[in-house]
Design brief:
- This protein is α/β, with parallel strands linked by helices.
- It has 4 domains: 2-54, no CATH class; 63-214 and 381-513 and 550-582, Rossmann fold (3-Layer(aba) Sandwich); 221-359, no CATH class; 517-546, no CATH class.
- Helices cover 47% and strands 17% of the residues.
- The protein has helices at 2-18, 23-54, 64-76, 90-102, 104-108, 151-164, 178-190, 221-228, 239-257, 264-272, 276-290, 294-304, 309-319, 328-338, 341-347, 352-359, 363-367, 382-387, 402-426, 447-455, 471-477, 480-488, 501-509, and strands at residues 61-63, 79-87, 128-133, 141-144, 169-173, 197-200, 210-211, 379-380, 391-395, 434-438, 461-467, 492-495, 514-528, 534-548, 563-567, 573-577, 580-582.
- The strands form 4 sheets. It has an 11-stranded mixed sheet, with helices on both faces. Strands 1-17 form a two-stranded parallel sheet.
Length: 583
């Protein structure tokens, strides 16, 4: 139309110059045509921009230096960068519903439907940089999306920014994605801090750091709770789990009382083989420190039991020592030792496989480091990682061994929960935010992780967990109510392409509905042959409003790769897309 009006303007000038018509009339007509053409050209330009945005099918990339500059500018204002896009309001939603009602193919052409998803959604508004308040991350973030739609690439962007801000970062990746680890390492190198990166992967023990998940604790009972949390349980309070906790706690108390630092290898040794040696050491040490002239006094008991020192010491403790120097730790260890062995083995039948998985090669050294002085192996723990602002990547190798990978991730998250409790109690005034990223979270989530989501904010933890569907949590935890606890403790929801209908519905139901205007057109005509061919016709337009979803659940299944909808804490909804981070 703009071109037609421009041609009309030119023809008007040509006619006025060649034919005997008033020049002023021809110029005035040409100017009118030119003005109308300019208006049409402006509208055409805007439509052209819309069409360009709609066809944003090409994947974008961002280099590391650009990422560093962008992060520092955002961090100076207390913001985080989330790619490009726009705020999704009732205006964009109404446009979307109007297009859907009229037919996307009819309005934009069938060629648009041949792409990898509904790219036209991104053309409903002008695209700008999407920034969000850093403080929103304290409410924890949930990322959902099917395989291969961009969850890991979104992790790349969020992790890179946390590293550049100088904050501690812990990445737990069941798949062991090489790109995720390599990108985090390259960011550390790019900002001149290569020593910040710490790598752990069971498939690569030669270049992995050793992490002791039982090093950090305030109360001795924490260690037993940390391992007992891994025992499969439908209710969380069944007798097998309770008995396993008691046995673990008794052995931990025995180890600590004898001056030994508990680790997974020692726990397995005394649970599988019995606590005989440990109990003997603990009794001897207790007698030495609490009972005067104990060697002379116990000799009669040794003779009574014909040289069996352990039985003699237990009898001496019960009959003599307990009255003046009772030890609760010894009482528990003795009860574990005296428990019927056959029944004992049945009750710990679910605990022993877990300890076996966590202490089999190469995890013997990786999770229970006990090296001689002068070794060159990096030995660390979650508290040290956080204090030194390290970037820890934990690959669980779940593709090769899903059961062991799940156990490793679960116990490390339990250790992290203990660190959170310690920081909450003793270090709340001087802590940095701690960023924890858990990919494929359903593989490793457990009760301590729910506690970390629920109470970690007070200790400065920012959790970001990714999964494919919400049903994964229920399947892992064995309880739909616990799965809903996970969802309820994440204030920010980011949805990439989602194919599961239940997950789609959950995302859409959490967003208020809007009123969309609908236009109904009716046309009818009628010929009555009985009354002289009487003809009647009618035409009617009716505008009405209908309550619709701001984001229809089904539209989530049509999002292109790397495109997302985000519902942030505070009610802000964003339609965005992310570039691929390429260091």
């Amino acid at each position: 139309m703009a071109a037609a009006w421009a041609v009309a303007s030119a023809l008007t000038l040509a006619v006025s110059a060649t034919l005997p018509v008033p020049t002023r009339f021809g110029v005035a007509a040409a100017v009118v045509c030119a003005v109308i053409g300019a208006v049409r050209a402006a509208r055409a330009w805007r439509r052209s921009l819309d069409a360009t945005r709609i066809r944003l099918a090409d994947r974008g990339f961002i280099a590391i230096q650009e990422m560093i500059g962008l992060t520092r500018r955002c961090a100076a204002r207390g913001m985080i960068w989330m790619g490009t896009g726009f705020q999704w309001t009732d205006i964009e939603s109404s446009r979307m519903h109007a297009l859907i009602s009229r037919g996307v193919a009819a309005q934009m052409g069938k060629d648009l439907l041949g792409r990898h998803g509904a790219y036209w959604l991104h053309g409903l508004a002008r695209e700008t940089d999407v920034e969000a308040d850093l403080g929103l991350l304290e409410g924890h973030t949930l990322i959902v999306g099917s395989t291969g739609v961009g969850k890991t690439r979104l992790f790349d962007l969020l992790i890179a920014q946390a590293v550049i801000r100088g904050e501690p970062v812990i990445i737990i990746d069941p798949k062991g994605d090489h790109g995720l680890a390599e990108n985090a390492r390259k960011v550390c190198e790019a900002i001149g801090q290569p020593d910040r990166f710490v790598y752990f992967h069971p498939a690569h023990p030669e270049k992995s750091a050793c992490i002791d998940p039982l090093r950090n604790w305030n109360r001795k009972t924490e260690l037993a709770s940390r391992i007992a949390a891994l025992i499969p349980s439908e209710t969380g309070a069944d007798p097998f789990k309770a008995f396993g906790w008691k046995v673990l706690n008794d052995i931990v108390n025995g180890l600590i009382s004898t001056g030994q630092r508990p680790n997974l290898v020692q726990l397995r040794r005394y649970i599988e083989g019995g606590p005989d040696d440990l109990l003997l050491k603990a009794l001897r040490l207790h007698f030495k420190t609490k009972v005067p002239d104990w060697e002379t006094r116990v000799s009669s008991f040794v003779k009574q039991y014909k040289g069996n020192q352990l039985l003699a010491y237990i009898s001496f403790y019960k009959e003599v020592v307990i009255h003046d120097a009772q030890s609760v730790d010894l009482d528990g260890l003795i009860s574990t030792y005296e428990h019927n062995r056959e029944h004992f083995q049945k009750m710990v039948s679910s605990l022993i496989p877990i300890l076996s998985m966590l202490t089999s090669d190469p995890l013997t050294e990786l999770l229970s480091p006990d090296f001689e002085a002068g070794h060159d192996k990096l030995v660390t723990d979650m508290a040290r990682i956080i204090r030194a602002d390290k970037v820890l990547y934990v690959g669980l190798d779940s593709l090769a061994d899903a059961t062991s990978g799940s156990a490793i991730g679960s116990i490390l998250l339990a250790d992290l929960t203990a660190v959170a409790g310690d920081r909450y109690n003793y270090g709340i005034d001087s802590i940095k935010p701690i960023n924890v990223f858990v990919d494929e979270a359903a593989e490793v989530i457990n009760t301590p992780t729910i506690q970390l989501l629920n109470k970690g904010r007070g200790a400065g933890f920012r959790m970001c967990i990714a999964t494919q569907t919400f049903a994964d949590f229920a399947s892992r935890l064995g309880d739909e109510h616990k799965a809903r606890q996970v969802l309820a403790n994440t204030n920010n929801k980011i949805a990439l392409r989602v194919l599961d209908s239940e997950t789609q519905k959950y995302i859409a139901d959490g967003i208020p509905k809007i009123k969309a205007r609908l236009l109904t057109v009716r046309y009818s005509h009628n010929v009555d042959a009985r009354i002289n061919d009487d003809y009647t016709a009618s035409y009617m337009e009716q505008a009405s409003e209908e309550e619709v979803d701001l984001i229809p659940p089904a539209i989530l299944s049509e999002l292109p790769p790397l495109h997302y909808f985000a519902r942030l804490s505070g009610g802000r909804t964003i339609k965005g897309r992310i570039p691929i981070f390429r260091p």
